[in-house]
Amino acid sequence: MAKVKRENMVIKYILCVAMAVLVSSCSSTSYNVAPDQARPAFNGEVLVFEKSVPENIKYSVIGDFVSQSEWYGGAGETANAAVKEAAAKGANGMLIEAQGHRVTALSWASPYTEGKLLWIDNYDVAQGQQVKK
């Protein structure tokens, strides 16, 4: 009887661990950088703007991104995930064009964030005008 109980506990533990791994690893961010805009990784803070970039900021669009979670949560989580990897793609700025929730295989309302990867020429000016995430 004790052996069966222990086996049930082991099975429950394995299922819990598997579910935790599945839920935590079901988010992804895809980047598309134009070949002529490829840059080395940026070693600073990626500046984040929502909906538009102020007119006094000089920038070029180097690509786009989509960050999607397969599970429930807030769109801020997907934005933060996108920002963390943007510098590795050579961006020093991001423009968030859309955020919200979509239906996915695992949820009715999983968060997403999408927008543009930017190279900001006047980075020092832009720092004070970004949206804090």
From TrEMBL:
Superkingdom field: Bacteria
Alphabetical list of PROSITE patterns matching this protein: PROKAR_LIPOPROTEIN (PS51257)
Keywords of this entry: Signal
Range of residues in the leader sequence: 1-30
Presence of keyword Signal: yes
Signal as UniProt keyword: yes
Name of the protein described by the UniProt record: Lipoprotein
